[in-house]
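Each letter names a residue; structure tokens follow underneath. Both lines appear below:
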Amino acid sequence: MQLCQKEINIIGHKNPDTDSICSAIAYAQLKNKIEMKNGGHRRYVARRAGQISAETAYVLNTFHTEVPSYINDVRSQVSDAILDESQSVTADMSLKNAWKILTERHLATLPVINEDHHLEGLITLGDIAKSFMGVYGSTILSEASTPYKNILETIEGELLVGDIEQKVTRGKVLIAAANPDLMEDYIEEDDIVILGDRYESQLCAIEMNASCLIICMGAEVSPSILQSAAEKGCAIMKTGYDTFITARLLNQSIPIAHFMVRDHLITFQLDNFVEDIKTIMAKKRHRDFPVLDGDDRFIGMLSRHSLIDMDKKQLILVDHNEKSQAVDGIDDADILEIIDHHKLGHVETLRPVNFRNQPVGCTSTIVYMLYMENQIEIPKDTAGLMCSAIISDTLLFRSPTCTPLDKRAALALAKIAGIDAESYAKEMFNAGSNLKHKSAEDIFYQDFKKFTAGKLTFGVGQITSMNQDELDEIKTRMIQYMELAKEHHEVDMIYFMLTNILSEATELLCYGSGAVDTAANAFYQTADGPVLQLPGVVSRKKQLIPKLMGELQQ
């Protein structure tokens, strides 16, 4: 469904850490303020490509921020197309009115909906044309439960006696061309009788218990006839048309429910991916297809032409620029910007983009600089989010990735947020490292990324804690789980970092052919089992990955 504002998703990497989530939220707020300042119509929305960690949940809760909505695939969907929402009709609409709408608006199909906005069927120009050309019996109006209001609209008539909400449920349609004596032989109860201004014929039809009289040529009807009709429960309509045209028009008053297609309708949902539905559309000759929401309510019509003109999803990537770490479907999206602090990866774009890549310890540090450069005031809670991200990524300034700019930004943000960085960091790390009751899978994917070196791919997960006993407790579980993780990701090697923030050291767990030797050679150690002790190593990005990459590329 086309929105008034163009929505642009700001999203971090899969298995998002605190920086990935907080940078997306803070940058979306900044972009929206700049957009509003410039009078633009785009809306920036923070999203996430995976489950958040306990640490991130603590941060968001502390600073009163909702978890960004989840998106697992950014391929184009039906919701990205321009849908025709201009016209839907109800089942009791007359064929004549439906034909008028279709021809005046140059449409091929009308969706028929009920009072709850659920789709009941479809009526096309072809369906109506067939109905006009068909030969039907004289009881077709009653078979179709034709409302009186449809008849009046079709013959441009006036109701003199009767209830406009009534429907034709019994009887046939006939023209009273004979004299009254002969009429008694063929008029039956509940018939609809088309006739002229002859008093005797009108009275005879009423006496024979006709359900409705249609008086043609605009003839006046005497008060006594009106009274008799009212007493006998017979409706009277008056039209300016002659009997021939009136009889010909009556079939056009039939409700479209009688001819619409009800069964085996091909419908799409808003979240259907375009590449999945193209095959279906190609097999069918329909020009338009109905689109329903999650509750099966009708939203609009999707045409073949709208797929040609549709835009791809527009994204801004934060805290990553590698395809292996990006949300699924990234090749089918339109990337507008990248804000990152990692090495350059392999994300391709349709056009030149704004790419802010700086050698700092945290993406939120770059976002902080962008707030300063644009002279936009940082809200208190947003400052708390960005400060948390910097503390998390730099391990409270202990990581070798931390720069003086990171520390200055974090302390400035802490002041805005009204927190003490040291004491808050302990609370945040403790909340994030409460691993005792978590499953091995949850722990492993709390912070996991994939990398490529030549033809080899490897994955690296990391857990940080201030409690060595906690790290020791989960070590065996992580070693056992790494086999499953390797098979799931189809990588050559898997590594997992158990990082102690206080001692500034890491135990590196290795799994896969060549994994131990690669790590041991990279750090000039002699391997003794699948675990390497790496004192002074706390950063995956700056200390571990460059070493492994260098060893694998030799």
Q: What stands out?
A: The longest strand covers residues 456-465. Residues 209 and 232 are 7 Å apart (CA to CA). The chain has 20 helices and 21 strands.
